[in-house]
Write a structure and sequence with these properties.
Blueprint: H1 3-6, H2 9-12, E1 15-19, H3 25-30, H4 32-39, H5 41-47, E2 55-58, H6 73-83, E3 87-91, H7 95-98, H8 102-114, E4 118-120, E5 125-126, H9 131-164, E6 176-178, E7 184-186, H10 190-206, H11 209-218, E8 223-226, E9 233-236, H12 240-247, E10 256-258, E11 261-265, E12 273-277, E13 285-287, H13 297-309, E14 334-336, E15 344-346, E16 352-354, H14 357-362, E17 369-371, H15 372-387, H16 394-433, H17 439-469, H18 478-486, H19 490-496, H20 502-510, E18 513-519, E19 525-532, E20 537-543, H21 555-568, H22 573-582, H23 595-605, H24 624-631, H25 635-643, H26 664-674, H27 676-686
Parallel strand pairs: 1-2, 1-3, 3-4, 14-18
Antiparallel strand pairs: 4-5, 6-7, 8-9, 10-13, 11-12, 15-16, 16-17, 18-19, 19-20
Helix pairs in contact: 8-9, 10-11, 10-16, 16-17, 21-22, 21-23, 22-23
Length: 687
Amino acid sequence: MTSSMKIGAHHLKRQAIVYVRQSTAQQRIHNRESLEMQYALRERAISLGWKSDQVVVIDSDLGLTGSTSQGRLGFQDLVSRVSLDQAGAVFAFDVTRFARNCSDWYQLLDLCGLRQCLIGDGDSIYDPAQIDGRLLLGLKGQISELELHTIRARLTAGMLNKAKRGELIIDLPIGYIKASDGSAQKHADQEAQSRIKLIFDQFMKLRSLGKVVRFLNENQLRMPRRIRGGSGVRWREPTKSSVSSMLRNPTYAGAYAYGKTRFVPQKTASHKRYKQRIDQDQWKVLLRDLHPGYITWDSFQSIQEILEGNMARYNSLNSAGTPRAGSALLQGLLYCGKCGHQMTVQYRQGGQYRCNYLYQQRCLPVCISTRSTPVDQLVAEEVFGTLNAAEFDLLSCSITQLSSTHETIALARQQKLQRLHYEAQRAETQYHLCDPQNRLVASELERRWEEAMRLYREAKQAHHGDSETMMKPSELSPTLAKQWAKAGDGLNSLWADGRLSNEQKKRIVRSLVQKVVVTQPQVGQVKLRIVWKSGMATSKVIHVKVGSLSSLPDGDALKSRIERLSKEDQASDAFVAYTLSREGFRGCDRDYVSIGLIARVRAAAGIKLLSPHRISRFDGGLSLAQLARKVGVKIDWLFEQIIYEKVSIEPDYAQRRFIISADSEVIGKLEALRNPDNTISSQREAS
């Protein structure tokens, strides 16, 4: 059956649609002959019997791929006309113009067969309602899809083979230019080189992306950016995205990488694909030391670890997040010993650590919740116990870093002045070389010259002003260096005096501690397992505050002992508290029994109180309350020094109370404990 025999009167009553498509914009420009052959199908439709006003040409999909129907408005218009029974035949130069995948192609075949619409190409006319026509069209559609995969596989294999040799350089980042032999070389602009090195150095020092951007903005230092389509450099304000792309690019480490990303379809109705970064071990090509680098490969690896660690992902066990300004010392380092998830920080009621992962996911009860203060204090003590065994040169290291940063900023500003001065001179030269009679050009060049001179003057004034205000840190003298080396408690004093910020404290802890695992063996107790960077672990148990005496595991036994000692032995409150603390009992809010707890239990039991204020002198001694008044401290503070054996005071077991000799040694020791800062400063002055 010839093509004309397949065309009936019912086909000629409807429209003949000519579908024109080319895959890329380059094909529209260079493959003009193919485009003309597709448009020539209009004359073929007229020769087959359709009138000229019945032939509709759809060419709105020029430059769009046929691998998907998404975004192809022309193809969607074609399908709509066929569905509405407006098309008697659809024409394309070959079936690859309609679709390059079988899913879209067979849907079009089914729709044309249902609506009795013919399909024509450059060879013949096919009726998809007949088995022969459907068979031939189906085979052509499968070949079309196979051809697309074959072309793509051939191109991909060629690109990959070239990439394995390190010759597939699509685009180089700022700081590099492509040499005549195809290799990558550093850009000749020394200011751009210095600024790139400064960004990497500051990140290794500050270890935070946001802090690097803040540092650049505070010092009015811009980032170099490449001029599209050229090798020039333009300067723009630094942003997190621009700094992040620079830090994550292995080109700056002298390496060539290919296949660092992949396209993943979105789970939306549009089915569009987005670019996703993949892990380094999945890169298709990685060639190290292929061209000069700004940093070493080890430094690049360290930067990637810092960037991944700074991402605060509480569902991941490998991310501690960047140190923040909150007071919680173990933010990002604390893990629940029950479920293994990372504990969150909540700054409510003084701050606390909570493991609420199971509560958020399954509405199960919170695993562990504890106050942050006692946990932070214990970990800080363990950290300083570790640091005391090492030798520090903290001040000298800080001064060296400050001096290096000062010199780098001064060099960057000097290079900025040189660049602005050159641009001003070039603008002046362009103005003088132009024809003064051509005012349309001369006025514009004059404006550019004045703008360049204004920027140069402002930068020069700012540079001189900053040079006067910025003082270069002086180096340590030999005498001061020896004195600082003897001060073993220097860092501890900085910590206790509040001269270290919360972020600095967290960095000190993270330099030694890998993570801290928390469990709660019983009410009022929290067990910490501190895992150090070396792999060793330290286990400690701390007592935390409970709501009432009955919440303690031995609360009933403690209450019975208090009532018996106070009723039968007629002991003072301080003596009972001292005795029970030595026996291993603890209170509700501390790890020893306080005097106030004894008084409350006695009052609840109806036992007559023995106030320490009514105890008279015995043999010239002082009671605990009298000694506290003499020194000028509270009795609870004095009792705590006795419990922790910071001062040697023993009770009188015969009298069942404290009778203290008022000698100068005890009072001097208490005054030294009350004012530690004055004592330390006097010792330093004496040394």
